[in-house]
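just leaving the lab so this will be short. what follows is a protein written twice so to speak, once as letters and once as structure tokens for the fold. can you read through it and tell me how you think this chain folds. thanks a lot i owe you, the record is right below.

___
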Amino acid sequence: MTEKALRLGTRRSKLAMAQSGQVADAVSQVTGRPVELVEITTYGDVSREHLAQIGGTGVFVAALREALLRGEVDFAVHSLKDLPTAQHEGLVVAAVPEREDPRDVVVARDARKLTDLPRGARIGTGAPRRMAQLNAYARTHGLEIETVPIRGNVDTRIGYVRSGELDAVVLAAAGLNRVGRIDEVTDFLSVDTVLPAPGQGALAIECTADNADLVAALAELDDPFTRVAVTAERSLLAALEAGCSAPVGALADLLADGQIVKEMRLRGVVGTTDGSTLVQLSTTGPVPETHEAALAFGRELATEMLAQGAAGLMGERAH
């Protein structure tokens, strides 16, 4: 007799289905059990409001977590950047698989790069973080751009460029990779130009804390280097008291000497959406050996950023 299928809770978007499908295959391999996708509609999927208005944090996550706690699904897959930084009672992130490309990318008309866009180009993005950094970059490089807030899935966003409504949109490389559309990218933005959202490109596989067998099985998909990096990034975000709609970018890189990973560098940025003021700092140190050390790594950089005036740039504090 075949073992009962594991039920994986996923959002319905094409991107969520693609990344959940990839995780389902991997979980099937480590557990030897079939995995079925259970589609769940979240508030963030049905609301037409801008993410910054509906609170950003957790709008794509709450319905999946409720389904987990009610026992309707066995585990769920989230984009890590959508996950609130506070630990949820009764749930555990059993695995953070190896991260995809964390960079942001431009999809522009006429195959243009960011620096080739026409004067006054309209660039669409839903993220205050991207607006702040794009506008700051434009100011320092003599570009004239207008950032336009947009919502919607990958098709909708790229559609604005194809229809000529916008000159370009900025998206996450990881998402386009996962839906097989990376060839539409016209420019990969260096992380020196735009730091990604904390946890961007990484997934979180979550299940109930009391399901010890499943926690242990899923843990085989965990990538310790990705986990330590995103833990530091999210700790920085939490210490700045910012939700995922706040204009905070962060990226932790592991610096290797040959094959040996020796150090971790964490970069953080926060800015006003018009790009007039940015606080951007970085720190480098030994790779944290424990979860607590990774949390401390992020907190320490956040403390320095707050000392440089980051708090005043956050707009409304997330509660």
The first strand starts at residue 6 and ends at 10. The radius of gyration is 19 Å. The mean pLDDT is 88.
